[in-house]
Amino acid sequence: MSKRKAVSCLILMMIVFIGSFSVSVFAADEGSAQAEYYMSYKKFKAAVDPDGTKTITYNEITDQISNLLEEGMRRYTGGAQKDGEDGYYKPFSNAYGFWYETSGFEKTVMGYISGSRVTEVELQFSTMRKSVSNKENAEVVRGEVDTLVSMLREDANKLDELFGYNSGSSDVSGAGLAWATFTAVFSIIVREGLEAILIVGAMAAYLIKTKNKRGTLYVYIGALAAIAASVIMAIILYSFASSAGNSIPQEIVEGVTALLAVAVLIYVSNWMISKAESDNWTKYLSDKVSDSADKGKVLALGFTSFLAVFREGAEVILFCQQYFTRADSMENGYLAVFGGIFAGLAAVALVFVLMRVFGIKIPLKPFFMATSILMDIMSIAFLGSGIWELFLDGGLADSIGGWVQQISATIPWLSWMSGNEILAFFGIYPTWITLIPQLILLVITVVTFIIALKKKPAENKAGEAEAKQ
Question: Per-residue confidence of the chain (469 residues) as pLDDT tens digits?
Fold first, then answer.
């Protein structure tokens, strides 16, 4: 072989070697840039904390949610199909139900930051998923993902500072953290219990006011039965979520219960307004109190009490479970949790007593009117929160897709509503899927109320004319 050929072969071999080395280095860099991701918090926890001794910070949870969303972006821009285990939609969907909720992130934000902040984050999850379903260009989806991760990171920093996960020592004193825990648990008990006690207290005061005190037994039995059912349901939901790594069944149960409560509340409200005249109630007691149909109405009050308490009960128990989990790691942790529970229950009980006392003293007709209006307001609130829990938290909007998912996203010019605690309490969210049914129910309620008010004077005049004859 000539020297020229030998040199040529040597140069060619060097080029091949360098090219192969460059390709392998590039592939290695590309592989390292693609961070490891987990489809659920359950799988992540099993991998990094199999014995349950590791403290997983909220920034770590945010990192993992970010990694999962990046995997979704990789699939989305890489031409993957939408559905299936390898589809691009699954990472975006799992980031909420299998991560944000099951990791305890949502519940902790609700307790230590605010419930309205949870609503804001949940709406951003929904907006992100909508952009993916609409097959928006990658820049739009990337913007929604970055906005969501930024919100999660902001909350994670606040929580990690509070619990001392950033520096190894809490940013607040042990006593300060205990007080923060007490306040969080107290606020959850009051916020979730207030809706239930408003309904139970109004019905109990109504029955006592109308000298039907025996009927309150059904209301109290319904409430106590709901507490027992809530404990059982909380255990079932916790076990199911732990095994499946998904908290969506809880939202579905709450949503269905809320919508069922709406129907019963409307029925009870109309019944109350129909008895707004003293003469009507006196006649009702004397003529019909023993009828099976009227017994059915009293049973309806008990069922309403059950639904009102049951809807909140299981959620409160699951919320408090998160705080008991952290109680071991903080000074006076259990004292703070139990103190928050008992103080919250005392505050709710005080509202109940005040409703009983003042409800009995006010005149009959205004009391009936006020009670009926309260029932109507709570039915509108339950309608909004029930639809929210089913379609957004429960993922029904994503499952159906199409126009249902379109109207489930945030209305841009109403986005300010998502940060309002009072609106959230009354189930009012900046989405068409919740607002439209609420507006329809509001119109029906107002029309029914006006008809009832106009009908009563006519009935009274007819009764007077008949008596004169």
Answer: 555 555 455 555 554 444 444 444 333 344 445 678 899 888 898 888 888 778 889 999 999 999 999 999 999 999 889 888 889 999 998 898 889 988 888 888 887 888 788 888 988 998 898 889 888 999 999 999 999 999 999 999 999 888 877 755 444 445 566 777 788 788 878 877 877 887 888 788 777 777 777 778 888 888 889 888 888 877 776 666 555 555 556 667 767 777 777 777 776 677 666 655 544 544 544 444 344 335 566 777 788 888 878 877 777 776 676 677 666 656 666 788 888 888 888 888 888 888 777 766 666 567 667 777 777 887 888 788 888 877 777 677 777 777 887 888 778 888 778 767 778 777 888 889 889 999 999 998 888 778 777 765 555 555 444 444 4
Taking the C-alpha atoms of residue 194 and residue 425, their distance in angstroms, rounded to an integer, is 10
Between 216-244 and 248-274, two packed helices, what is the crossing angle to 10 degrees? 160
Cα first-last separation, the chain:
136
Going 389 to 394 to 400 to 401, the CA torsion angle's sign is: positive
Angle between helices 138-163 and 115-133 in degrees, nearest 10 = 160
* Total number of residues shown for the chain: 469
Buried b (16+ CB within 10 A) or exposed e, 178-210: bbbbbebbbbbbbbbbbbbbbbbbbbbbbbebb
